[in-house]
Design a protein that fits this description.
heterodimer; A: DNA Cyclobutane Dipyrimidine Photolyase, subunit A, domain 3; 2 domains; 1% strand; B: 141 residues
């Protein structure tokens, strides 16, 4: 006969709740909580603060008017329809916030693929367009990436933010994914699994299909970036000095030739 | 009167979900803390805290064990013949729903759709989908 095991849900403070979760998640070694709070009240408080009109202009900047709603959407505390309604209420007219609505549509799109083709979540949808084959990518994650101790300062900063908060701005996720797949030639699946293990909002569809987009197995070309682009979209808290980020300090043409030397032969 | 068990999972942690709209006072709502499933999904510690904080605020029962076994036991305990669950696309949760359907009626209730399209959109690239969805989404409230 199965014993009914009901877990405690009343806690005197957050520290007690965190300790309780540690006791019922013995398979995990990390033990610190994100500053981002769970719960309906936190979700609705954040929803009230969205700035859909500023979003289009600033969203690519790490300090731009992104909503931070992704953990609440991922876990169903807020539906895409509710977020759209609230954004239109604030803006007065959907035409003024098309970019914002389009970003919500990306999640709907990923979920539709997940429903129709669950096999595409962990398998490459198309061949790489990098001149490399699947077997050219290493399966294991390099230790320096796991530790956030690579030779690239801005990449280390992104890893530290991810690991400290369970959250990373979308642009920084793309930089990080691109660095892991193209500079370090790691299989996108390994990077996606690692990133999802840290994210509060990691969803197999949004996360993995975005990694495939970066890798070029779900896009027409690989996504790469350079140091000038990072410097343009980050603030003074990210070290973008050339001497600390040598691997990124080049033009797109130089990087493309360096990272994909076989690509021209395609 | 049909007794129902409401099962909430990590893809729909909301008391406002339409799956719960038909609940009555005294109905049982539960989340199953399934170590094996949570570990297999690759959720990290910070995420588990986020989920638990949400559950704690929802004021529902959190039961520990293997999801299907716990739900079957709970449904029999309260003499429920139907299990109501928010719809999901997660294959791991869908296989649990299939297993439950061997002995119970399971009603998977979808959330309010973001967009309802007349025809299945092309999913080959985002902008093909966007072309179909845009006219519906850009319509004022």
């Amino acid at each position: 006969m199965l014993e009914r095991v009901q877990l405690k849900t009343d806690f005197k403070d957050r520290a007690e709740l965190v300790g309780h979760v540690a006791s019922i998640a013995p398979w995990l070694s990390a033990r610190s909580a994100s500053p981002i709070r769970g719960g309906r009240s936190a979700a609705h408080s954040r929803l009230k603060r969205i700035e859909p009109l500023r979003y289009a202009r600033t969203r690519n900047h790490l300090d731009g008017a992104v909503t931070g709603l992704s953990p609440y959407i991922r876990h169903g505390l807020l539906s895409l329809a509710v977020v759209r309604d609230e954004a239109i209420r604030i803006a007065g007219n959907p035409e003024r916030i098309e970019k914002f609505i389009q970003e919500l549509a990306w999640r709907d799109y990923w979920q539709r693929i997940y429903a129709a083709h669950p096999d595409r979540i962990w398998n490459s949808i198309e061949p790489h367009k990098t001149g490399w084959s699947e077997d050219d990518y290493r399966a294991d994650m390099p230790d320096d990436i796991l530790r956030g101790d690579t030779e690239v300062a801005c990449i280390n900063a992104f890893i530290h933010t991810l690991q400290a908060t369970g959250y990373l701005h979308n642009h920084a996720r793309m930089y990080l994914a691109s660095y892991i797949v193209h500079w370090r030639r790691v299989r996108w699946q390994s990077g996606a699994k690692w990133m999802m293990s840290w994210l509060l909002d990691g969803d197999p569809a949004s996360n993995n299909l975005s990694w495939q987009w970066v890798a070029s197995t779900f896009s027409r070309k690989p996504y790469i970036f350079n140091l000038a682009n990072v410097a343009k979209y980050t603030g003074p808290d990210i070290d973008t000095r050339p001497e600390s980020n040598r691997a990124l300090d080049a033009t797109y043409g130089e990087l493309s030739a360096r990272l994909f030397p076989n690509r021209q032969a395609l | 009167m049909i007794r129902r068990l409401f099962w909430i999972h990590e893809d729909a942690l909301s008391i406002d979900h339409p799956a719960l709209a038909s609940r009555r006072a005294g109905d049982s709502i539960c989340f199953v803390w399934d170590d094996h499933h949570l570990e297999a999904m690759g959720y990290g510690f910070q995420r588990l805290v986020f989920i638990y904080e949400t559950l704690s605020e929802m004021g529902i029962d959190v039961l520990r064990g293997s999801t299907v076994a716990v739900l079957e036991h709970e449904a029999r305990r309260i003499s429920a013949s139907e299990i109501v669950v928010p719809a999901t696309v997660n294959p791991a949760l869908l296989s649990m729903v299939s297993a439950l359907r061997e002995d119970f009626r399971v009603d998977a209730v979808a959330d309010r759709p973001f967009v309802t399209l007349d025809r299945k959109p092309s999913l080959r690239r985002f902008f093909a989908y966007w072309k179909s969805a845009r006219p519906h989404l850009m319509r004022p409230g």
